[in-house]
Amino acid sequence: GGVALHFMVTNRHARALLMGHKKDSAGVIHGRMRDMIGYLRRKDGKNWNLVLESDNRKEIEVGHPIRSVVLVDSAEGPDYRGDTLGFFHAIEPGDWPNAIAKANAVFQVVPPSAGTYIFIEGTAKGDTGWFAETWKSAWKRQRYGDGEEGMAAMFFPWFIHQNYRMSAVFGRPLTEKRRAAIEASLDDEERRLLELRYIRRGHGLVNVDYDQLAWRRWCIAENCQNQVQNFHQEYPAYPEEAFLSTGAKFFSSTAIAKLRLASQRAPAWRGEILDPEGERLMMQTLPQLQGKVE
Predict the structure, then answer these.
(1) In angstroms, what CA-CA distances link 88 with 58, 60, 102?
(2) Band (286; pLDDT cuts 50, 70, 90)
(3) Is 243 exposed, middle or buried (0-12, 13-18, 19+ CB in 10 A)?
(4) How far apart are CA 12 and CA 120, in angstroms?
(5) Euclidean distance between CA atoms 158 and 213, whole angstroms
(6) Distance between CA atoms of 93 and 107, rounded to whole angstroms?
(7) How far apart are the first and last CA of the chain?
(8) What is the DSSP letter of 278?
(9) Cis peptide before 65 (omega within 30 of 0)
(10) What is the pLDDT of residues 65-115, one digit of tens each?
(11) In what order do the strands lie in the sheet with 117-121?
(12) Rounded distance, CA 41 to CA 47, Å?
């Protein structure tokens, strides 16, 4: 919502669309955006003092001289064919009942040009469906260098959110006694989590810590019906876990994800092989290099 508002106030006569998965979610999105307007500040720190031409559950429109509008709707609403949008944010498309048809319609009204944006944000709901396939396609393209055009896949693991700590939930630091108890009862997955590193604001590169593991245990027990698979779906630690966590499976999705991560490695070298004339050579013309260069 904040990005859409920024787009609205920095572009004249612009149209943005935020689309949730159902009507109730659209109302929640509008309410949050309405609250954000009061916090918008210009570069000089002053309030924008925006004049709203309209403000209802369907849209927020800024008056003269900007004349831009943010539309808020659900996947149950119209497909917006015939419109022209500069900004589209799809929210929880994994829950959309008609995701492929809806996305196909809206994507056509966002011109593929500089200054236009499409964001797709959601929680993985299994390893199939439009959202899962779109995300995995973009992720593979980035990892294996198959072109730079198209969507950029981004994944945010649960432990980068600093509210997901026991100290943040209950307002007091984790005691040494509690920390020692967790350390003495670690399982394999928790040990693996402690090895993961991420950039924490104000601290730099850090490891997952016991305060976060304490929250994870609490969340599994209180919010996930004591089912670790539910936690994996709602709070994944890595993409493979997110898209493997739902649906009935014969093999453990956690074990599969662990094996996949362990087997992945960066190529020893990536580039082009040129002959003395500067011409590109194909690998099949250099059988002596096969198996030595990736």
Answers:
(1) 15, 15, 12
(2) very low
(3) buried
(4) 24
(5) 11
(6) 14
(7) 43
(8) S
(9) yes
(10) 888 988 888 888 888 988 999 999 999 998 898 899 999 999 999 999 989
(11) 52-55, 59-62, 69-74, 15-20, 87-91, 117-121
(12) 5
AA identity, residue 157: P
Range 37-40, long-range pairs (CB < 8 A, 24+ positions): 37/5, 40/5, 40/6, 40/9
Angle at 218 between CA 212 and CA 222, to 5 degrees: 145
The residue whose two tokens read 């309405």 is 34
Which three-class secondary structure state does DSSP give residue 73? strand
Among left, alpha and beta (phi > 0; psi -120 to 50; other), residue 172 is beta
pLDDT of residue 116: 94
Residue whose structure tokens are 């995995």: 136
% of the chain at pLDDT higher than 90: 40
What pLDDT, in 10s, does the model give residues 138-194? 988 887 776 667 888 999 999 999 999 999 999 999 999 999 999 999 999 999 999
